[in-house]
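Example for reference:
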Amino acid sequence: MATITLSINGNEIVAEKGLTVLEVAKRSQITIPTLCWVKGTVPRKACEICVVEIANGDELGLKSRVGDGENRLYCACTTLAQDGMEIATDSEAVIAHRQQRLAIISQTHFGDCKAPCNLTCPGQINVQGYIAHVAKGEYIEALRLIMERNPVPFSVGRVCPRFCETRCRRILVDEPVSINHLKRFVADWCMAHHIDLKIPRERPTGKRIAVIGGGPAGLSCAYFLTRKGHQVTIFEANPKLGGALRYGFPEYKIPKEVLDYEINTILKMGISIMLSQKWGRDFTLQDLRDQGFDAIFIGTGAGVDQPMDIPCASREHVYTATRFLRMINEGRDLDLGRKAAVIGGNNIAMEVARSLIRKGVDEVTIIYPGPNWKCRPTSVISKRPSTRGSSFCSWPHRLKYVATRKKTIASASN
């Protein structure tokens, strides 16, 4: 390995040939500040914060001088170290130039920056903050920070579409940070260790709030209002809380024991619940007002399916995905037959197909509405999930239904 000898701040250093001045300094434990350099990348534009003064730059034939041209200043991130260089990282000229560059950058920099991952997250979770806690092994602090914005990280950590990871700055280097997996990890770690998060509450306000619906929206509303010191009661039509988290996702996606633990974590804050209480059947809005509630939140969800634009959609054994998954989660004994077809190619279609196979269906055909498979379901690793027993075909020209043995069977033809 070829080496060179140079001087940094009066210290003689032997370094590997071919490194930049910045790399030599870092390996020698000498700090040179920089805003544009990340290991493994090439700066798109020099920030000129990493300037150094090279006294013999002219003699060495260096051309890329910065500043007004009178000072012998060069960007450490792009200047290759040479034998005999005399480098200063903190001279008066260097400090003055850095201050000038910072002033220029600040003039066009309005307010505090938020990382793209943070801005992309629908919940505006402090991504950098909880990842920093995880890096230090502070898992409880990480989960507390997550729950400042997201009260259901145990469930979301399993089904989140990970919008944040599509905008992770680490993509510019190699691949995004596993932001969502870290969220799930700290939640599962705290559950496994029976950690009491001791979620803080403000002083009681004396206000009573009725929340209609115990799904993700209702639970979130109850969580944040309780933290504000209000007294909350949830009215849920089903025998159990959870809504779409309980009835819209298969067991293998969100295990019921995990969901129950998460819901109990929220209820332990002092939230009251009324189960099997359906709005319009068991109570009205006026009833809640008469009971003394100061405000009412309606979070009943979007439980009504859109009509399917296919022939004979109302026939027996033709289900919408929402209805089918709910029946599976309710533990109903369904006669699914030997073959099944799933029309669609998004995440829900994949969950239905996998649930059918897990229920013993021998063959599942996924009919994708288009000539080519272009969807990217986030619920599976590959674009075409290698689910045993499933096959794929593009959208047919027509669908015909044939009634045999008291069952309606959907068949596709071109």
Residues 378-387, 394-414 have pLDDT under 50 and may be disordered.
